[in-house]
Amino acid sequence: MPWFSPERHKDRRPFLLARNRIVAGIRQWFDERGFLEVDTAALQVSPGNETHLHAFATDLIQPDGGHERRYLHTSPEFACKKLLAAGETRIFNLGHVYRNRERTLTHSPEFTMLEWYRANEPYAAIIEDCLALVRLAAVISETKQFNWRRRKADPFAEAEWLSVAWAFEKYAGVDLLATLNGSGADRDALAKQCPVQFTDTDSWSDIFSRILVEKVEPNLGNGAVTVLYEYPACEAALARICTHDPRVSERFELYACGVELANGFGELTDPVEQRRRFEAEMNLKEELYGERYPIDEELLQALRLMPPASGVALGLDRLIMLATGATRIDQVLWTPVT
């Protein structure tokens, strides 16, 4: 049956009404803490520069008939950072983002992302925000326990905090830090310890991701929400390197019932380093997929003005799924992509 059939809509409607209540509660939560809601443009010069993220492309036609390539954003991150550079200090964005090649029970090519930033505040504050919003969604939906594929998590229990290095040691028997040197990584050292299958052409990052997905992630967010923090520096994306150990970064992810809910950073504000990372990611993307996205030069200019900040992107639809007991992401989308 199509999603708009009365029978199917009747089944989905309780989830959708709960979604509206959770969204309203989230907006109130941010308002009470002095955050401004911002509305960022979806059309961007660059959709983001991560190797494995795939964007939707279109053409912007100027009045003179000239064509310029634009992309639907995969995140409002670049626009939000420009607003931080402009002088905003506490902002959040609640809107649709677009990612191609993504469609599973927990993925939709168009979905709602909740993203927020705190200028001049540590990323520990953003992590506490995430935990508070998880509890808020549970309160609003009147649930005491998240369930997903026979996994359970108590959103009100004290969160489990695991460094990536400790999680790899605990669940995969891998000494991850021994394979890292500054911002570099020793592929052969990781391959010798690898408990999962890999190929001779797999890079350190490929092997890292395979171990994370197959050995670590299934154990996260079971019983309580898990904060997985201090990602390796070579997996930092847009995060700062930790001052106490240059091998790791101020990047974290939040998990419940084995489902990734959020990905956040102590934000990198060095435009030279950010350009280096973007170019490396796009070189790899071109090698793997035969395409690359432009670098947003305005973003690099904005980083020079941007204050120290922390920020996070949270998959709102996934949080609503866990809070309401939905089993598929399309159950909590008012009009699913067909």
Overall description:
By secondary structure, this protein is α+β, with helices and mostly antiparallel strands. It has a single domain (6-332), classed as Bira Bifunctional Protein, Domain 2 (BirA Bifunctional Protein, domain 2), CATH 3.30.930. It has 9 helices and 16 strands. The chain has helices at 6-32, 77-86, 123-141, 164-172, 187-193, 204-216, 271-289, 297-303, 316-324; strands at residues 36-37, 43-44, 57-61, 67-72, 90-98, 110-119, 146-148, 151-154, 160-163, 180-181, 184-185, 223-224, 226-229, 251-256, 259-266, 309-315. The strands form 4 sheets. Strands 1-5-6-16-15-14-13-9 form an 8-stranded mixed sheet, sandwiched between helices. Helix 1 crosses helix 9 (316-324), helix 2 crosses helix 8 (297-303) and helix 3 crosses helix 9. The longest helix has 27 residues, at 6-32. 42% of the residues are buried. The model has no long low-confidence stretch (mean pLDDT 96).
What's the arrangement of secondary structure elements?
Layout: H1 6-32, E1 36-37, E2 43-44, E3 57-61, E4 67-72, H2 77-86, E5 90-98, E6 110-119, H3 123-141, E7 146-148, E8 151-154, E9 160-163, H4 164-172, E10 180-181, E11 184-185, H5 187-193, H6 204-216, E12 223-224, E13 226-229, E14 251-256, E15 259-266, H7 271-289, H8 297-303, E16 309-315, H9 316-324
Parallel strand pairs: 1-5, 8-12, 9-13
Antiparallel strand pairs: 2-4, 3-4, 5-6, 6-16, 7-8, 10-11, 13-14, 14-15, 15-16
